[in-house]
Amino acid sequence: MKKTLAITITALGAFILILCITFTVVRMTVSRTVWFEEEFEKLALNEAMDMTLGDLGAGIRTLVDYINGRTATIDVLVTVNGQQVRMFNLDIEIVHMAEVKALWQGLSAARNTGLWLGAILMLVGVLLERKEPLHTAFWGYAWGLGVFGVLLAFMGTWAAVSFDGFWTAFHRIIFPGTENWMLPENSRMIQMLPGNLFRDLVMLIMGRTLIILLLIGGVLGTPWFLRRRKKQETAQQQQAKEEAQSRAQVVEGPDLLQVHKKANMTVTARNQLNREQEQQEKPLPASEPEPEPDAVKIDFAPYAGTQETIDEPDDDYDDLL
């Protein structure tokens, strides 16, 4: 339960961070006006609008500076048919860009707050599961990325199948209650930024965002993967050691024949056998050295012939006397 809660909180924080990263990619891509100038040339918009690529570049730079707060107006002079005119001369263009600027600034502020909020949530989730912080961080991010990936795949498929329908629904969501984004056909803003250009822009942003998010996932996943691999190797070594010990125990185990015999004996016979085995297994007492035998005095018996000579008197000697 604790681990699930930790991963859920981490996933929520990761999802918020992913949204913030996505908007950061949008800001960076839109602020690179060179890309727009390349698109103008690819789509030959300068010829269609009878303007120079330089004037189109000046127009897009003015719009980017305006939504980023670097300029207070979208007024910029360009040359059309040899005459110098205002690039954006319709009131609806001015109103629409004011709405875009307000939305842009609001998303920028939300991005700054979201970075802190997402980081704090991820930190809380990791601290809840201190035993496996790498596991929690990686899987929390993976879940957050998975949810975002499903959302991104849905929008990408929708945009690829019917970009006009996707773009209309997108504007109705971000600009609720207003239709100032529906510019007339004579608007230079809509002529300069047609649907084909926005389609390429959306695909570029999605591709860059996906690459960055996968790289972050790789940075988080590599330490987790290495640690998991090390734990698996340790577990395999421990298992091999236990199996070796188990095999040794089987080889040096009890006599199965004796066990079978005991199982079929009566209680009295089994107890008697156990006592005999215990007696046999008892170590023999240390043998004491045998004492050396005492010295024995040997009395040699006298020689029989000699004794007879001593005991019996000599007859010849008696005769002499």
Describe the structure.
With 321 residues, the chain is mainly α. The protein has one domain. 74% of the residues lie in helices and 2% in strands. The chain has 13 helices and 2 strands. It has a two-stranded antiparallel sheet with strand order 1-2. Helix 1 runs antiparallel to helix 9, helix 5 packs antiparallel against helix 6 and helix 6 runs antiparallel to helix 9. The protein is rod-shaped and about 125 Å long. The C terminus is likely disordered.
User: What would you call the structural class?
Assistant: mainly alpha
Q: If strands are numbered along the chain, what order do they take across the biggest sheet? A: 1-2
Helical residue percent band: over 70%
Q: What fraction of residues sit in β-strands?
A: under 5%
- According to DSSP, the number of beta strands is 2
